[in-house]
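Design request, tokens follow.
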């Protein structure tokens, strides 16, 4: 099975760092929209593909634009929501990384399915500040569920820290912030 991690397109929260990190619920910029459209040629989708994305507007918009016109399964899961990397126990979740409510997702993105197997507490807490030990437990269960979906590849639209955390967990390799994928960067992991 192949996991294809895709970082979301450029978001409004990246235009004036560090000030813009305090924007709540940032959307894609015009450049981010173009990056998401470019994914259609870089990574063409088929109806047998499964896409899973973070419950944050910029990832949802990236997945919506990329998958437009393709009748594949689209799932929103808090288990691929924003995650700090490396973990800072005293760190705080920034406004730009707060997850949308299930109700907002249903209203704004009606073609997407909510991850019903994710425990309700993760729809509230997310994985941003989860300890590495707990992340590894949740990650293992999440990957096992993905394998049971019976498809040859799963695309995960997420965030730089989350992608790097999963890469570390899956491969056992060490990574730094220097290994973060760029906007709409693609990372493939086979197992």
């Amino acid at each position: 099975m192949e996991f294809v991690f895709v970082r979301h397109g450029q978001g409004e929260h990246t235009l004036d760092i560090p000030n813009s990190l305090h924007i709540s619920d940032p959307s894609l910029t015009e450049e981010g929209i173009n990056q998401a459209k470019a994914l259609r040629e870089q990574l063409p989708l088929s109806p047998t593909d499964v896409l899973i994305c973070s419950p944050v507007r910029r990832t949802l918009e990236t997945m919506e634009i990329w998958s437009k016109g393709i009748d594949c399964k689209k799932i929103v899961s808090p288990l691929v929501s924003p995650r700090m990397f490396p973990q800072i126990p005293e760190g705080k979740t920034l406004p730009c990384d707060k997850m949308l409510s299930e109700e907002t997702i249903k209203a704004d993105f009606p073609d997407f399915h909510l991850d019903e197997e994710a425990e309700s507490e993760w729809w509230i807490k997310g994985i941003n500040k989860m300890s590495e030990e707990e992340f590894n437990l949740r990650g293992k269960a999440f990957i096992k569920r993905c394998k049971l979906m019976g498809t040859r590849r799963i695309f995960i639209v997420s965030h730089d820290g989350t992608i790097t955390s999963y890469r570390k967990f899956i491969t056992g390799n060490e990574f730094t912030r220097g290994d973060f994928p760029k906007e709409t960067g693609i990372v493939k992991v086979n197992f």
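Comment from the thread starter after seeing the answer: thanks! The longest strand covers residues 2-7.
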